[in-house]
Amino acid sequence: MLGMVYKVVEQLFAKKSTNYFPSKYILEDTATTLNKGAIHPPIAVKEGFRGRLEYNVETCTGCGLCSKVCPANAIELYPALINDKKTKRIVIYLSRCTYCQECVTICPKNSIQITSHFCMADYNKYNASLVVGFEHRQKFEIKEEGSTDVQKEGD
Ligand code: SF4
Ligand code: SF4
What we know:
Elements: H1 2-13, H2 28-36, E1 53-55, H3 65-69, E2 75-82, E3 85-93, H4 102-106, E4 112-114, E5 131-132, H5 134-140, H6 150-153
Antiparallel strand pairs: 1-4, 2-3, 3-5
The structure holds iron/sulfur cluster (SF4) (2 copies).
């Protein structure tokens, strides 16, 4: 019993051996260790690894095919005003994505790509870091009365 209490107290005051996430919270001594050692992020991943999706708002035509095939309902189409034309664009909620790649395959404009980036931790799944196309939405969305955010509806 005494041994257990000793262990608990010891653990309470022990130096942390893991990092805080996301990586912006990395401890200074951990960063130094990484720089001195052989591990240098970004860390290579195996071929075929499916990481963070990338979206090209310039080539996207707003056809909506990607959101139709997405099995996870992770892609939301929103009305947008681009070059004075009313059209549509998308956002991708990475917290819902299963990385099945259906959207990548179906997009006729190759506007969605899979990358090898895997550091995607955040405290809020609606933060810009976890919503691909977030900043474009801020810029181009036409706010329509009664429009909804499907992600938050079925949360
Ligand atoms: S990779 Fe799959 S789950 Fe993720 S957004 Fe594309 S279609 Fe949806
Ligand atoms: S399928 Fe491609 S072009 Fe069509 S809305 Fe999706 S990203 Fe845009």
